[in-house]
Amino acid sequence: MCTRRARPRTAKRARWLYVTLGASLAVACSTGMRANPIGLYAASEFTLVNDNSDGAVAENGVSGFTLTGGNNGTGLPGASDLVATVAQVMVLRYRFTFSTLDSGVCDGLGNPCDMAGTLEGGVFSPLTTPSGIAVFSLQPGETFGFRVATLDNQGEPGILKLSDPGQAAPEPGSFGLALTALGALAVLRVMHPRHRTRPTPQAMAAVIGAVLFSVGAGDLVAQNQFYPTSSVTGQLKRTTVTNAARLATQRAFAISRLQAAGPETKPNWIRPPHPPTAQRFSALVSPQATTIQTLPVTPATGASGFAGLTHLDQRLANNGNQFSVEPPNPSIAVANGYVLEGVNNAIQVYTVSGAPVLATTLATNQLFGVTPAINRSTGFNGVYPTDMRVLYDQGLNRWFVLQRAQDNDIAGNELNSSHLYLAVSRTGDPTGDYNIYTMDTTSPRRFGCPCLSDFPQIGADRYGVYISSNQYNTAFLRFVSVSILAISKADLAVDSVTPTTYEAVISSSRGYEFTVRPAITPPGANYFLASGGVEFFLSSNFFSSSDSSVAVWALTNTASLATPLPNLTLIEMVVPAIPYIYPDVVRQRPGPLVYGSTLVPRGQLAFIDGGLDSRIQSLVYAGGRLYATLAVRVADENGRLQVGGAYIILSPTFRNGVLGATLLRGGYLAIKNNGLLRPSIAVNAQGQGAVVFTVAGPDYYPSVGFVPITTSSTGTAVQIVAAGAGPEDGFTGYPDRGGLGIARWGDLSDAVVAPDGSLWITSEYIPSAPRTELANWGTYIARLKP
Fold first, then answer.
1. What is the CATH number of the domain that holds 482?
2. For the whole model, what pTM was predicted?
3. 118: which of 320, 357, 359, 655 lies 20 to 30 Å off by Cα?
4. Residue-number span of the structural domain to which 624 is assigned
């Protein structure tokens, strides 16, 4: 048997030192060499190879290109290689700059998680400086290129910018590679001996050297708050199976349109737990708002759409056995050639060109298999579902319809009990069969209860579906806590009668425990799979009318939802964001008041409610980042207070049981002298997105608008995709129906991504369309080209 004598360690180190010194000498002498310009090998002439990576390459005009590394959330190492083969003898020179915003470390030595280097003949050579010039001396048929590698595919990706050496080199990012940390690469071997072109996690961690990014893990642990979860399996139960298309053809009671017995309207007035105490409509007592440069308004380009559900549609669903409800809260889901829209307690399915698929608008009372909201023949009250959310999940190929209801007797008197209703399609067809799940959310034994679950929101990761809601005492409507339900996708996929369900209950303490919104991951984007799967949530501070921080939440080990004994932990961390202040009201453009003119005395033009608070309006997890929106008060360039929107982009991490997050970018959206209401964001897997909202004010009847957005840029104008035809003239704006001269507006807009990567938006506006006596709102659905 032959044996191989190991070379002395010093010899190995010397060999790699010589290689690095030689490369450095080549760089130093290269200015005197005759070299081909970068233009001979532009990005289009390279081949991008991703190994457990979602890296990408982009041209930078004529000056070069950028290679961005992986950030797919798997927790495993990956590499993005950009390689090309030369056809002749040549020397190529590229100016490089490497940086990353990932301030995380991937081992106990403080070593960084991202690195970059060159590839020559299949051999990887890590960069030894954050910027400089890379030189390749190549023979015909030889390959060369670049690599951006990551140890854990989270945080932020490494970014390698390459340009012609004649171009000025960009400055390294604030978290760029430090020369002293990378100096260790000159003396250590970094390639696995059996696979020299692919660094292992251990090798990459060992070669980076001492501290490159100064993040105190102990400080992060101290900032993390931990919350337990407990099993509530059996409380969410499948009660029936219904069919949407069949129900839409049924006639429940024969009535004459809107002429019927019983009360006409149903209130929906649950307030946030701590509304501002000052008069909300006076600029004299308003907190100092951020002054911003407002955006111009233009007609939309690259968008197509159609009118969605109106108040008339919602009121006449279930053959008219409905209440008049205001405001609407539109929600959409798009897949498989269908668009599912839900508003208040009505749904409709459309083709992507806007043709209705269901025979009639369907009341969710029908879908859930419960009694009508009101029997117009007898005046008896039934179940009144509200707070509509719909969702399509690509992993399951299932559609979801979510609502809540406070129970009441047949006279409409509210009871001290409540339920959650969840419809889950059994196939990818939203017009087909649905499993109907219900859950008693009264929780009478919980402190501060009996309760109702207000403002439920739905999100999902690979392993679970998540429903968060605000718990209010049913008798006094006093806020008690936040509930987060985690439901096993594996059980929903097999139509389980009692799917595995766990719950975290969070009592109010620091102000961020209100409307803890779950994230939605768009089709084609990667879920966060490290640490057994993580679902992220986000919340703002409701204790104060103004703040500049948000809370990031992580529900960890979600893969265990598919096991007999799930082991989930909820973690919270408060991080700096951008200042936000509760929004005020919006003045309307004068116009005909069809309903208001019938009142005695004649109704005055109502204000529009700009938002009760600055709760998180939407949350998307895509490309390893969290994108969120919220309603805010801002000051335009003339110093006038306006209702606007804010967006924030965060980079979350979860390493070694520690949650962290960094603000990447944030900003405000507003229009001079007008309001921008209820912003919602969608971002596809390529980082292209849009923020949708309603535009309203002295210059615009309530209209649907949007602003394009990406990770690094925001559109320069508000684009109107559906112009309003008149003022808001609904019953909530008039005292005869209990209003205060402030019309309620939709709690939410909505924006989603279709499986083909297109963006779909919906929001409330005032259409030129048939109305009821009491309300004239409608919704508009549009497809945007990213």
1. 2.130.10
2. 0.87
3. 655
4. 230-252+285-784
